[in-house]
Amino acid sequence: MRRSKVIIRCFRLLPVVFAVFVMVLLSAPADDAIMANDKAADKVIVEGEYLTLDNCIDIALKQQPNLMYYLYQIHANEAQVGQAKSGFYPALDLQDGYTRNQAVSKDHSTFYSTIVNKDDYYASAQLNQTIFDFGKTLTNVRIKNYNLLSSVKDYEAQTNTTALSVKSSYYGVVKAKRALDVDVETVSKYEQQLGQAKDFYNAGTKALYDVTQADVNLSSAKISLMTSENALAVAWDNLTTAMGITYSAEFRIDEDMSPKPLGVKFEDALASAYSNRPELMSAIALKDAAEKNIEYAKKDYWPVISGTASYNFDNGRFPLDNGWIAGVVMKWNIFSGFDTKYKVAGARAAMDAAESKIQSMKLSIYSGVKQSYLNLKLAEDVIPASELQVKLAKENLDIVTLKYEAGLASPVDYTDAVVQYKSAKLTYINALYNYKIAQAAILWAMGSR
């Protein structure tokens, strides 16, 4: 009879089970849609979108995985600050237990044994509070705060490095696009040369050598064009990688590389670097932490005074006996094998090492700012010279082209003129690129973006 009731109840549950099964099936497409939406949300760039340099840097600061490591370091140090502050608060411990003790006593005269079983129940609540530790807890909190500040500055340094990488890759794309345009123009000119050479040959005014020479030039130019196309694809990949994007993004960028003077003096750049370089600020914070660590190690020479209070329940049967205990405890470590002495010595050595690192970093900063400033001045001076070179090469090419079309110049003359013009344009493009990178480098050296 009881088994029949169980079976009937199971049959009654079948509609409920069926309804749950249907709901799970219907929810599957919704989950797929959510996943599809998540994938779409991952693509932070809309196809065909126009992005400035600042837009690309903003995306990189949100997407670049390298930055997450430094961000998590900040969170870890924030947690350590909280752990250090816990020393200011009381500690409450609860304890509960049960023991059973069996005692066997033997009577040697009668050879009888007596067995006694005893139960013991106990529970307690204990409260401990540090009253005075000669500032040890406060010093520990300050050390952790300095470590936190150091991790924040490390994060800022990585953001500046990420921005510099994006700038280099961004202008690398512009440089590659302009170099590609030069190769396209060069192919066009050699196609014109080949057509002109064929006309001369068909007219009987030039030899077959001219046609062959023009054909060779055109083949070389097409190979150079394919190399430039690959270089542009690599440049795009470098940019998306610097931005932290793992998919092929189709977007447009600002191709303007016109030189805009930065207007910075070496003395101002150096002063800014000493004041703003996050790496230096991080090293200074670690040095301050090391200095406080000496003070923290010395605290072990002094006692710690704590207050304690507990309420206890204990007996072999209920109701349990109960009562409270309260008091003040002073703990003073008199001798621990010179442990505190060596802790202080180690802390002093760590502080000296941190100070040496700061001095080394200042020397590196000075050298970096000076070299960046010299590179900036050189790049600034090269631009007008390379621009003039393009102008003269273009004039020479125009003259040679007219002579070649009139049959007054040889294929070698025309080839030399095209090569000079291409070289001059590429030199000018490199000069613009170097100037932009030099500007980005000195801004990074100054501790900014």
Key descriptive features of the protein:
449 residues; alpha+beta; Outer membrane efflux proteins (OEP); 2 domains; two-stranded parallel sheet; 6 strands
Folded structure, characterized:
The chain has 449 residues and is α+β, with helices and mostly antiparallel strands. The chain folds into two domains: 42 residues; 323 residues, Up-down Bundle (Outer membrane efflux proteins (OEP)), CATH 1.20.1600. The protein is built from nine helices and six strands. A four-stranded antiparallel beta sheet has the order 2-3-5-6, with no helix packed on it. Helix 3 runs antiparallel to helix 4. The longest helix is centred in the middle third of the chain and has 68 residues.
CATH architecture of the largest domain: Up-down Bundle
Unreliable stretches, pLDDT < 50, 5 or more residues? 1-41
DSSP helical segment count = 9
N- to C-terminal distance:
83 Å
What is the quaternary state of this protein? single chain
Provide the CATH top-level class of the largest domain.
Answer: Mainly Alpha
Kindly give the count of domains.
Answer: 2
Order of strands, main sheet, comes to 2-3-5-6
Assign a percent range to the helix content: 55-70%
CATH-derived topology of the largest domain: Outer membrane efflux proteins (OEP)
Principal-axis shape: elongated
In percent, how much strand structure appears in the residues?
5-15%
Major beta sheet summary: 4 strands, antiparallel
